[in-house]
Amino acid sequence: MQAEIILEVNGEAYPVSVAPDELLVDVLREKLGLTGVKKGCGTGDCGACTVLMAGRPVNSCLVLAVAAAGKPILTVEGLGDAGHLHRLQRSFIEHGAIQCGYCTPGFLITAKVLLDENPHPTEAEVRAAIAGNLCRCTGYTTIINAIMAVGVPQEGDRS
Question: Which helix (H) or strand (E) holds 15?
Fold first, then answer.
């Protein structure tokens, strides 16, 4: 039995037919072609599938697609594109925070939430925020540096 739902992803409405037990990560990747959302552990431990749902980070491997209906979802594809990268994406590139890239979308989404709530976090706050995201390539230092660089007050910032 399929359910007809509307997923609001990156500002677009997508009518989609889903099974009651179908996971959001699978629908995003397989039905909507949003392969920036990575399917890692499938148990909510690695953070590779992190998306924003109604403004909060969630592991899309733990969310049923039917539960996401009607809630705004932001994936890494919604942050920016090749012609106009989000400042976090630029910082990850500049700081070498991407190696294999598998974990990067989850880190970017998690970091966006942190910086939206706390534009100038301490290193300890960055470490706490990304604790649910795993990386096996970078050793975290470059990721933390990239996030911290975006949090550095810029000329004209009001703080």
Answer: strand 12-18
Instruction: Tell me the C-alpha distance between 148 and 111, whole Å.
Output: 10
Longest dimension (CA), the chain: 56
Q: What is the pTM of this model?
A: 0.91
Residue-wise pLDDT for 87-130, tens only, equals 999 999 999 999 888 999 999 999 999 999 999 999 999 999 99
Residue 87: count of CB within 10 angstroms of its CB = 14
Q: By C-alpha distance, which of 141, 95, 89 is closest to 111?
A: 89
pLDDT digits (tens, 9 = 90+) for 143-152: 999 999 997 6
| Cross-strand partners of 6 | 15
Q: Could you give the domains of the chain? A: 3-78 (3.10.20.30), 87-151 (1.10.150.120)
User: Whole-angstrom Cα distance, residue 26 to residue 40?
Assistant: 11
Length of the chain: 159
Question: Residue 3: beta bridge partners?
Answer: 18
